[in-house]
Design brief:
The protein is an all-alpha fold and 427 residues long. It has a single domain, classed as MFS general substrate transporter like domains (Growth Hormone, Chain: A), CATH 1.20.1250. The protein is 80% helix and 0% strand. The protein is built from 19 helices and no strands. Helix 1 packs antiparallel against helix 6. It is globular and about 55 Å long.
Length: 427
């Protein structure tokens, strides 16, 4: 059994704050390319399909493929030093992104950003699940993922010229500055590594290879036999269709809604910041309270939230930018992804044995990034290009609506997960 890490409550809060800050940085780095999408596409001569490849498959294939390896290493050797190395890798590659001169020059560093960032969430899941009580898991994970949602908003604020150098700042400047900041935070992680450790399980007399094989066997057996875990993995992946759509948010607002690039990024950045921060924090608290007060699963909480949000998301795609429904829909599109996220992660982590929590989280990210974000971003870009060539009105809007339709099966999956959890409790 993995030992609970030593330290005072203040140390645990410091660890949560540090991990949240790192998540903020990682999502700012990741979404900066989307926030400057129009400028980068014009500068480097990219089509929508090429842009979808860079923001989708170039990042997500490497991110998701490295994730299971990172999760296995975290479970086997502990998260601290691996996390420090990951921060330094992705930050250096973020800086190199700002030096890109071509599609290939953009592709390569974005791929390696994915490799570095692949370590963060498996490591953080391992650390936080060991340091905090399971009854507060949705709240803790809601706080951690709040950092990521904050990062998305900051990226769009940067793209809209609202931070640092303002509108005089180029997209290249933004990537170089964030790369330098990330390297500094990577050094802070190394200085804090003693508080980020979680003792790995000891496999008696089996050696490193035997211990690794045991972890893999435990993971495979758990995934094969635990239907609740299967549903939690699938549900989390499907909801990430909203994340795939975010990659084209600025381009969509410019191409189909007629906004200026800086205006589009600034607007979405402000909405995301004002919505995601309270939604992430309150969503985790609300999910924990819902489960404790009503005796229902967090999966039912997720299904209810998504069901209420879908009509507003459709209205957001179809409304005019000068209508109040458009602004409300934009708020709800952010709320739908951020408010239930802590509950989604808590539902997944609750089904994973402590010894393989990092590996299970990495597997979830693999499913979400390759199956939904990577393929989804490519398909959105490709279908928008195809419809534009066929003279379809508002092609990006139609492509994004097609992606949003995946929220319907996501709701069904979370209802099935709720029923499976209820059957286990009753049994």
């Amino acid at each position: 059994m993995t030992e609970r890490p030593a330290g005072t409550p203040a140390i645990s809060l410091y660890v949560l704050a540090l991990l949240t800050l790192l998540h903020t940085l990682s999502l700012t780095d990741r979404f900066l390319i989307a926030a400057f999408g129009t400028q980068i596409s014009l500068d480097l001569g990219l089509t929508n399909q090429q842009f979808g490849l860079v923001t989708g498959l170039a990042f997500t294939v490497f991110y998701a493929s490295a994730g299971p390896v990172a999760g296995l290493l975290v479970d086997r050797f502990g998260p601290g030093r691996l996390l420090g190395s990951g921060v330094l890798i992705w930050s250096a590659m973020t800086g190199l992104t700002g030096m890109a001169k071509s599609f290939l020059g953009l592709w390569l560093p974005r791929s390696l950003v994915g490799v570095g960032e692949a370590i963060l969430i498996p490591a953080a899941s391992k650390i936080l699940s060991a340091r905090f009580d399971g009854r507060r898991s949705a709240t803790v994970f809601g706080l951690f993922f709040m950092g990521g949602h904050l990062g998305v908003g900051l990226a769009y604020q940067l793209g809209g010229g609202q931070l640092f150098g303002g509108e005089t700042q180029t997209w290249r400047d933004a990537f170089l500055q964030l790369g330098a900041l990330g390297c500094a935070l990577g050094l802070l992680v190394w200085l804090s590594v003693r508080w980020l450790g979680v003792s790995p399980p000891q496999a008696a007399d089996s050696g490193a290879l035997g211990a690794t094989r045991t972890l893999i066997q435990t993971f495979v057996t758990t995934c094969r036999e635990n239907r609740r875990l299967q549903l939690a993995l699938l549900g989390l992946a499907l909801v990430h269709v909203l994340y795939a759509g975010m990659q084209f948010l600025q381009i969509w607002l410019v191409q189909d809604k007629g906004l200026e690039p800086s205006e589009a990024s600034a607007l979405y950045g402000q909405v995301h910041l004002l919505t995601a921060i309270p939604a992430s924090l309150l969503g985790g608290i609300a999910a924990d309270q819902f489960a404790q007060r009503f005796g229902q699963s967090r999966a039912l909480f997720v299904a209810i939230v998504l069901l209420l949000c879908v009509p507003f998301i459709v209205a957001f795609r179809l409304s005019s930018p000068d209508s109040s429904l458009f602004l409300v829909g934009m708020v709800v599109s952010v709320f739908a992804f951020t408010f239930p996220y802590g509950a989604m992660v808590a539902s997944l982590i609750a089904e994973a044995p402590q010894a393989i929590k990092a590996l299970v989280m990495a597997a979830a990210l693999f499913c979400a990034n390759v199956g939904v974000i990577g393929v989804g971003a490519f398909m959105i870009g490709a279908s928008a290009d195809w419809m534009a060539a066929s003279n379809v009105a508002a092609p990006m809007t139609s492509a994004l609506l097609g992606a949003d339709a995946l929220l319907i099966p996501a709701i069904v999956v979370y209802l099935l997960l709720h029923r499976a959890i209820s059957a286990r409790v009753e049994g």
